[in-house]
C-alpha cells in the first residue's frame, strides 16, 4: 500500500479542548453526544431542535461486568497468546499449594551466596517452593515483611547538632580511630572546613567512644548520611568516597540484623564513585600534587578491600575485576603525611605506625582473598572445577596457601611480637585466619567428592580454628579497647560457621565430638566477650541465628528419620537453645536430596556412601591425622 505524504495545509485541525468541569446538558447526556455550547452558553443541539436545555440530571452509574478470578484468568492468557505467538507453546510452570510465593504474594528473599555466614548447605532443604533445588546456582532465605520498610521514625528524635560537636568528634577520631584506619590526611581529619558528609561520618564512627557525644542520635546521623550520600554520589569528590568508607567501618555496630541490610548497596556506591573519579587508574605519572596521588591510592585500596571482604562475608559477587585496574599497590610512603607533628617520613605515634602497616597488609591480603574467591567461590569456577582432577585442586590450594604463608611472614608475624596500647592488630589477625578458613571451605567438598585423603587438610582446619579460639581466649584490654574494622564481626562468625560445617561432615563419633566441643567452647568465649566487645557479640548473634534457622530445617527431618527407624541427632528448638544451640549443628543424619554438588552437603554418607566405606583413622596410613589425641586447649 502506497503512503502519500500530507502537506501542512491538509492536516486536520485539532479538536478543541473541552474541560471536564463543563457538564453536558440533560439531552446530550441521554444521547451520549458532545454538548457544544455557543458564545451565549446555549447547547447547539438543543437550539437546533428547539427544546429546553436543562442541567438537572446526574451522571448515570457505569455498569461494570462482574468477573470472577477464575473466569478472568483464561481471558488474560488468551490476550497474551494473541499478542505473542510463542506464548502458546511455552510450558506452564506448576507451583505447589504450599509454596511461599502462593502464601505470601510475591516472595522476596535474601540471596545466600557461596560464601558468608549462611553456609548454603544449611539452608538448601528450606523453601523448596522458591527454587532451592541443590542442583541450581541460587538460594534464597525468606525475610519478614518488616525488613522491607525503609522508613524510620528516628528523624523525630531530638538530637544535638553535628556542628556543635564536630571539633570534639574530630579530636576523638584522630586519637582513637585514625591509627586503626589511617585513610584520611591528618590535616583533613582535624580541619574545620571538611564537608558536612565527612563530619557526619566522623561523628558516627566516634560517638561510641565518648560520653560527650551520646546526645547525637545514631539513627538521625545515619539517615542524614545515607540521604546525602545519594545526592553527592552524582558528582562525587575524594572526600565523598572517604566519608562513605568511614561509614562502613561502623555500619555493623549496633545493628539488630546480622545480614547487614543495605551495606552491600553502600559498597556498590563506593565502587561506583571510585570509578567515576578514576581511582582505578594509575596516577603516578599525572600532573597532580604528590599528596593527591598518595590520597587516591589510599582511597582506592580501602575501597578494594572493603569490596572483597564484604563480598566474601555477605556471600555476594565482587563489584571489582582486577583486569580493570592499574593502580599501584600501597606502600608505607603513601602515608607519610598522616601525622602532622612528624617532620620525617615515619610517624611518631607507634600505634599509628602499626595501623599504617596493617592498612597496607590488609590491601595485600585482599588480593590473595580475591584469588580464593575467583578459584573456588564464583559460579563459573564451581562448574569448571567439576571437570578437573583432585590433584589439580590441591595444587591450586597449595599455591594460595604458600602465598598466605609468605604474607604472614612478611606482615603479621613481625607486628605480633610488639606490644602497644591500644593494639590495632586484632583485625588483621582475624582477617588472616578467615582467609585460611575460606580456602579450606572451598576445597573440602571438592576433595570429598573425589574420595581423596583429607588428613593434611583436616590438620590445617584444626590448626586454624584453634588459632581463632586462642585469639578470642587471649583478648586483653589493649586489643579490646582498640578500634576493630567492621568486617571483623563477620570474620569471627565465619570461623564458627566453618566449625559447624566440619561437624556436619563428620562420619564418626570422635570427629563429631571434637567439633561439637570446639564450637561450643568458641561460642561460649564469644558470648563472654559480647557485652564489652562488639565483634564477639555480633558473631555470637550470627551463630545463634544460623543455629535457629538450622534447627527449623532439621526438626521435621529428624522426626521423619526417627519414625522410620533411623537415628536422629537434631534436638527440638527449645532444647537446642537450652544447650547453647550446639545440638542444632550436631545432626549428620539430616535428610538429603541425593543430588551431588560442590559445597558442604548435609549428609555426605548418604550422598556418596561408597566414598566413606574406608575407616578414616587409617586413610592417611602411618602419617594419618590422629583425632583421638585432640583436646580442648
Automatic annotation (TrEMBL):
Keywords in UniProt for this one? Nucleus, Transcription, Transcription regulation
GO molecular function terms attached to this record: DNA binding; DNA-binding transcription factor activity, RNA polymerase II-specific; zinc ion binding
Q: Which ranges carry the Zn(2)-C6 fungal-type domain?
A: 24-55
Report biased composition (Low complexity) as residue ranges.
Answer: 146-161
Whether Nucleus counts among this entry's keywords is yes
Alphabetized Pfam families for the sequence: Fungal_trans (PF04082)
Q: Where is the composition biased (Polar residues)?
A: 67-87
Q: Does the keyword Nucleus apply?
A: yes
One biological process GO term for this chain?
DNA-templated transcription
Q: Which InterPro entries match?
A: Carb_Metab_Trans_Reg (IPR050797), XnlR_reg_dom (IPR007219), Zn2Cys6_DnaBD (IPR001138)
The terms describing its cellular component in GO are: nucleus
**Superkingdom to which the source organism belongs:** Eukaryota
- Region listing for Disordered, in residue ranges: 1-22, 56-109, 141-161
Its name, as the record gives it, is: Zn(2)-C6 fungal-type domain-containing protein
